[in-house]
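Run log // design_07
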């Protein structure tokens, strides 16, 4: 329902069809993320490390004959933790491309630039963005990231996925987004009452006033392009380290040095 692109944004969409295709792709990305991190009797989580709310849980899925997902073994990893920071501050931090290098290990320290921005709600945080990561290593090709952020009175999310440059160019020109392979990761943010947890984090202006937040971090990573391959312990350890490092970076960036154990 968006009919405007904010003034000052770098726009690479040249047609209404391209805008519609990008929004359809973002909608599928959000649905894919929710399906990928949702448990069921057929897809159950295994606790990998930690305990209680700080536990890292993993789940594997096989992707076969699905044009919207890369083929192979997909490892999902997720954890939830509490922060003495208001939800809005966390949401604004995670969705801002300028602060992405503070938590996103996969961007590898590259400069992140917003290429285009489509508003899809009244709140300025409700939007679909296409980001470009200009790698510090000139021998590496530039990475594109599709991101959707949304916030309302019930909660917020920031969901993103790396996208192929060639496929994204077709989408921006109005092409069919259904055949763009996506493996989305992201964050869910919920308000969690007044600060009464006493977990070692100290942000004076937040404590006793704005309460805290429950932040869920979830990654989906292709660990093997062969669907019949066996999951290696090395792959599991790598993803576990990735999610723990990301959590620690977010805590540090928001002024909380209580590391995930």
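design_07 sequence
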């Amino acid at each position: 329902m968006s009919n405007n692109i904010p003034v000052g944004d770098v726009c690479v969409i040249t047609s209404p069809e391209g805008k519609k295709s990008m929004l359809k792709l973002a909608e599928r990305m959000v649905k894919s993320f929710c399906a990928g991190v949702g448990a069921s009797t057929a897809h159950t989580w295994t606790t990998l490390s930690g305990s209680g709310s700080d536990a890292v849980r993993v789940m594997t899925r096989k992707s076969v004959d699905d044009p919207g997902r890369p083929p192979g073994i997909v490892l999902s990893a997720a954890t939830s933790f509490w922060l003495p920071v208001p939800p809005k501050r966390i949401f604004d931090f995670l969705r801002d491309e300028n602060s992405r290098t503070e938590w996103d290990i996969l961007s590898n320290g590259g400069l992140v630039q917003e290429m285009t921005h489509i508003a899809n709600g009244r709140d300025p945080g409700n939007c679909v963005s296409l980001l470009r990561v200009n790698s510090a290593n000139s021998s590496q090709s530039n990475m594109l990231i599709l991101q959707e952020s949304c916030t309302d009175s019930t909660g917020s999310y920031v969901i993103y996925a790396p996208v192929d440059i060639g496929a994204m160019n077709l989408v921006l020109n109005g092409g069919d987004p259904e055949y763009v392979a996506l493996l989305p990761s992201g964050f869910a943010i919920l308000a969690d009452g007044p600060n009464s947890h006493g977990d070692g984090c100290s942000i004076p202006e937040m404590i006793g006033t704005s309460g805290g937040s429950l932040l869920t971090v979830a990654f989906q990573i292709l660990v093997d392009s062969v669907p019949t391959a066996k999951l290696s312990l090395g792959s599991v350890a790598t993803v576990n380290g990735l999610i723990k490092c990301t959590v620690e970076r977010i805590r540090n960036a928001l002024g909380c040095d209580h590391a995930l154990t």
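The mean pLDDT is 81.
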